[in-house]
Amino acid sequence: MIPGREITTDTLLLAELAGTVSCGICFDLGTGTGEVLNNANLGDAFTVGIDISIDALRMFNRAVGQPFLCSVGMVSSIFRKGCADLVLANPPYNIADNCRNSPDPLRHEARAGGPLLLYRFIFAGAHLLKPGGCMIITGRLNRSREIECGLRAAGFHRMERFERGRVAAVKAVLLQHS
């Protein structure tokens, strides 16, 4: 853990659920400092943490995976389709310029994004996953319908929702690539 930065409920929920999925290759989209991978029990899985913040990735613990500087919009141009068994994501949940500033600049950057960013995360996850692969995505409880709608549109099924406080996680399986 980074001194002065507590681990959030969404991080712990995502890490807990990740440990329930058997996988060989796992991507964490929007990994930040890598706390999800640091707290997940993924055994010997090869893990990649993707983020757009060089400052956050500098704090990434390379013992738990490979950090990679990349926007989710570029994932399909850089990574091979269908290369992962598991994709984790905790996308920004505040719309930029319409949210309370966090006193921690990295945390503020991680929580603010555009209105379509959630769907970019979902479609990047669908690109990375093998058919039958699993995506686990967290967000505010009041956005869980948007998350489920985006997952359906991207070809996911067998969705399970988990709730903890104001946080929801949805675990879904990818059908087939088109």
Task: Describe the protein.
This protein has helices at residues 9-18, 35-39, 54-58, 75-78, 105-111, 117-128, 144-153; strands at 25-29, 46-51, 66-69, 84-89, 94-95, 112-113, 129-140, 156-164, 167-174. The protein is α/β, with parallel strands linked by helices. It has one domain: Vaccinia Virus protein VP39 (Rossmann fold, 3-Layer(aba) Sandwich), CATH 3.40.50.150. A seven-stranded mixed sheet has the order 3-2-1-4-7-9-8, sandwiched between helices. Helix 6 (117-128) packs across helix 7. The N and C termini lie far apart (40 Å).
What's the structural blueprint in terms of helices and strands?
Elements: H1 9-18, E1 25-29, H2 35-39, E2 46-51, H3 54-58, E3 66-69, H4 75-78, E4 84-89, E5 94-95, H5 105-111, E6 112-113, H6 117-128, E7 129-140, H7 144-153, E8 156-164, E9 167-174
Parallel strand pairs: 1-2, 1-4, 2-3, 4-7, 5-6
Antiparallel strand pairs: 7-9, 8-9
Helix pairs in contact: 6-7
The separation of the N and C termini measures 40 Å
Task: State the CATH class.
Answer: Alpha Beta
How much is the radius of gyration in Å?
15 Å
Q: In which range does the helix fraction lie?
A: 25-40%
- Give the low-pLDDT segments: none
Number of domains as seen in the coordinates? 1
- CATH topology name, in short, is Rossmann fold
CATH level-two architecture = 3-Layer(aba) Sandwich
Average pLDDT for all residues: 86
Side by side, the strands of the main sheet go 3-2-1-4-7-9-8
**Large-scale geometry:** globular
CATH superfamily caption: Vaccinia Virus protein VP39
What is the number of beta strands? 9
Structural class: alpha/beta
Q: What is the succession of H and E elements? A: HEHEHEHEEHEHEHEE
